[in-house]
Amino acid sequence: MAGCTPVGAAEDPPAVSDGQESNERHPISGLEIIDVTVVSGETRHTFKTELADTGEAQTRGLMFRTELADDEAMIFPSYVPQTRSFWMRNTPISLDIIFIGTDDRITNIAERTEPYSLDSLPSDGLASAVFEIRGGLSEELGIEPGDAVEYTLPENPAE
């Protein structure tokens, strides 16, 4: 589980690229930062997003973090679409866990998760990624199932 921690974290990524690399790193996690945009009707919400693109990063997730700004997020790509399940182990802040289907649309949202909970929070079907933002922010911004999620995974130079 991620967190939060994924139960059965995704495999390490294959090389994927749009030819652009951000090289920007988060000061706490050291993870690469990418832009992720959620499209809700005519409104676009863009987040500076930590890319949890390895099994280790996905296992750690947002554990032990005490804050997450409204324009920050973390994304957990599934390089092979799969059912995902997260929990809040060692995560002291509430999150909205957004499950992204294979069509790049939100399938379901676990809103305002309970910090430190060991309850499993599963995706509704196969997920291509899981996206986490501050707890309650999806409702505040009007983000809901069916909204599109846009992001590009950078090239993995280790591959």
TrEMBL record:
Superkingdom, taxonomy of origin: Bacteria
Taxonomic lineage: Bacteria, Pseudomonadati, Pseudomonadota, Alphaproteobacteria, Sphingomonadales
Stored Gene3D superfamilies: Protein of unknown function DUF192
Region described as Disordered: spans on this chain: 1-28
Pfam annotation, one family: DUF192
Organism (species): Erythrobacter insulae
Official protein name in the record: DUF192 domain-containing protein
